[in-house]
Each structure stands twice: as structure tokens, then as C-alpha cells.
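REQUEST FORM: STRUCTURE PREDICTION
Request ID: SP-0412
Submitted by: Lab K.M.
Chain count: 1
Length (residues): 89
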Amino acid sequence: MTQSERLAALEQRLTDHEARCEERLGEIKTAAASTLQAVEGLKNRSWALVVALLAWAMAQVWSVNAARIERLEAAAPVALQEAHHAPAD
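STATUS: Completed
RESULT:
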């Protein structure tokens, strides 16, 4: 094999290698874009879950406070009636 033939073979191998690298780079970019899209979807779902849990917690607090207020309102008339019927000293 002559020097020019070896040089031509080397150039062909280099060209083939660069073509494979470009193809792989395209696949890597596609995979990275797909992964980024999946991560964004997970992030959005996580925020939705946080909002739902916060809403649930606020509903629990409101429910407990509403029940406490109802008990206080029910107890207030009874206390007022007892105060009016209590004998004066």
C-alpha cells in the first residue's frame, strides 16, 4: 500500500468516524430533550401535588376551626341562660 493510499484510507476512516459521531450526537440531543421534557412533567406534577396537599391541610384546619366555633356558639346561649337564671347575691 502506498503512502497516498494509506492517507486516503485514513481520511475515509476519519470521515466515517465523524459521521458516526454526528449521528450519535443527534441521538444524544434527542434523548436529552426527551429527558428534559419528562423532568418538566414531573416538576409540574410535583407542584400540583404540593398544592393539593396544601389545600387539603387548609381544609382540615378550617373544618376543625368551624367545629370549634359551632361548639362555642352552642355553649354561649346556655351560659347566658344560666347567668340570667342565677340567683342574685
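NOTES: The chain has a mean pLDDT of 89.
Reviewed by: T.R.
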